[in-house]
Amino acid sequence: MPVSVSKRRPRTSKKTETETSDKSLKDHPTCFKNICSIFSRSVLYRLPLTIFFLFFIYLWSTSTTVISGNVVHICISSRKLNDLYCLTAGSQPGLRVPVNNFTKPFSENLIRSEEEKSVVVLGNDGDKGFSNNETFSGERDSEKSTVGTSLNIIKNETFTGETAGIRVSVLDQDSKPIHEENLDSVLDQDSNPKKETVPDILVDWDSETGEEQYRYIKSKDENEETALKAVDKYLQIQRSWLSTGNNRANPGSCEGKGVYVYDLPSKFNKDLLGECSDMVPWANFCGFFKNDAFGESIEKLGKGWFNTHQYSLEPIFHSRVLKHPCRVYDENQAKLFYVPFYGGIDVLRWHFKNVSMDVKDVLAIEVVKWLGSKKSWRRNSGKDHVFVLGKISWDFRRNDKFSWGSSLLEMQEMKNPTKLLIERNPWEVNDIAIPHPTFFHPKTDDEISSWQNKIIAKPRRHLISFAGGARPGNPDSIRSTLIDQCTSSPNQCRFLNCTDGGCDKPESLMELFQDSEFCLQPPGDSPTRKSVFDSLVSGCIPVIFDPYTAYYQYTWHLPDDHRTYSVYINKEDLKAKKVNVIEKLMSKTLREREDMRSYIVHELLPGLVYGDSNAKFERFHDAFDITMDSLLHKISKNL
Ligand SMILES: *[C@@H]1O[C@H](CO)[C@@H](O)[C@H](O)[C@H]1NC(C)=O
Ligand SMILES: *[C@@H]1O[C@H](CO)[C@@H](O)[C@H](O)[C@H]1NC(C)=O
Ligand SMILES: *[C@@H]1O[C@H](CO)[C@@H](O)[C@H](O)[C@H]1NC(C)=O
Ligand SMILES: *[C@@H]1O[C@H](CO)[C@@H](O)[C@H](O)[C@H]1NC(C)=O
Ligand SMILES: *[C@@H]1O[C@H](CO)[C@@H](O)[C@H](O)[C@H]1NC(C)=O
């Protein structure tokens, strides 16, 4: 291919993901079909352009040294291509691998790690710890070798129904000269500069239902609009699966709700935990897998507090599901089949080792094969099966264009089952996001209510806080702007510098959050942040800059109306310096803050934490209960 990309700005992007969210979501099973056909039409129409474009992006991205952010601003929901989903805040996490010396004990790296997804694994140093010349060339080399084939795959892709929804948002400025004529529709940057006054959110009306909708960012073109509509539809579908609490009305009844847990060979789960000392080259994970994977307890924070790693969801969920009151041992009595494969921990082992793609996929392929031998799996083609994958969807969606991660979720067999992830692919309806695990794992109702009482009464000395690090090399990141605004209003805003180790301990972070009214939550290397949940659990109102951080993720655990629990500030406005975060938050009245906090603490908090594996809650439903009830509801609606 003669396309050569000499100039690149790997860390720059202007991407604008627009999102719309219906205020009141209803059940629209038929809308789903409509949207599908709209997609396939628009996709077919744009296929040639898309092919070129993907290929261009592919070449471009493989030529970058550090694919650290926002290289690819294309949102695709095709089955084969979906790793390119709108990574509004980052792209392939952690293609960079540190080769310098990490000497700090890993347990001190938590905040850093929640600071950036990849950094969890990269160690505490994050941005400062490895420089651009330290790159895992092995990964990139292997990508290059697939240049020839990727186009074929794309050409051969049959776009059908739900899998096809393509949207291209905005490319980098630098890419413009290359094939301008083909790209103008997608390069329409900043064509519509907003006026001075920036409303909280734009409101418009759904053309089908006439209902009021919130629009987080204006879409720039038709494609973007189509893709965003798809996001919205998928969210509506997922919300329709949310269990309305009938289970609570009928406690103890497991009629038609049997949960079957496969007894997988231990190489798919327990043995992986056994590799804790060697999971990533510079850190020891063993401490994190203690106490049913809650990690070491943190006495200082009280009962039920642990140093939990953000990627520990798989074993945490597994322990809990083994004790589910509706667990059955006869698969014929089962409604829901739980596959305890620790796919995230599996892939984490390989992220920073120079191994071939085949190696990365060994367990994924084996587990699918193992299931294929089961009648229970074949009976409903996996539709009543669920996987919990404690990492971001992207880590499981390797394809021909990128060598990051495993291809577990790219496998055809994995399409039907429900995948519970800490970050979902917004164009995959069976990808369901559930909360990142926090440090709090209560065992009883009383532990929850005493925590609620404590933080609701807590005097908060800071109006705003931001615990994070800058992204010095990333001009697209809004973090520097936030840090500037924060540090220039020291009376209102407290900045905890994670880059110099300021947030190394969970205690410091939790203290800061408990002491703050608002917690700024800009995207890291991927849109979601564990910190959003830490902040909610501390009663600190999260300030969200990207709808993909939360609004388009946690359909079962966060309500549709984001204003009840968060403040949204459009990051494009922030970037364009049209809004000052401090002023904006200062304008919130005491009443508004109290209403939000009360809602967060009393309504949301219990449902955001994963209780102890022996937990017996009567008054509350924790994140696990909500998830299990909704899964059962989903299956009963879909089978
Ligand atoms: C890493 O740091 C440790 C302790 O500071 C030191 O003993 C060791 O030699 C260093 N390793 C490398 C490769 O620099
Ligand atoms: C790049 O790596 C070399 C050695 O591998 C090191 O001496 C140099 O300082 C690094 N460059 C930067 C910008 O960190
Ligand atoms: C990774 O492994 C391949 C094959 O063994 C080797 O050619 C390559 O140099 C390695 N890359 C790194 C960064 O070690
Ligand atoms: C497309 O797929 C078909 C079968 O699915 C295969 O026979 C053909 O070789 C593929 N074409 C390309 C260009 O890969
Ligand atoms: C945060 O810490 C890093 C490393 O110590 C430092 O370079 C940076 O200037 C600090 N940022 C602020 C805003 O103080």
Automatic annotation (TrEMBL):
Bilayer-crossing regions: 43-61
Exostosin GT47 domain location: 254-580
Lineage top rank: taxon: Eukaryota
Pfam families given in the database record: Exostosin_GT47 (PF03016)
Biological process terms in GO annotation: cell wall biogenesis; polysaccharide biosynthetic process; root hair elongation
Keyword check for Transmembrane helix: yes
Membrane topology (UniProt): Single-pass type II membrane protein
Biased composition (Basic residues): 1-13
Residue ranges with Basic and acidic residues bias: 14-25
Coarse class of the protein's main subcellular location: Golgi
GO molecular function, one term: glycosyltransferase activity
The keyword ATP-binding is assigned to this record: no
Family under the similarity heading: Belongs to the glycosyltransferase 47 family.
Protein's name in the database: Exostosin GT47 domain-containing protein
Species: Arabis alpina
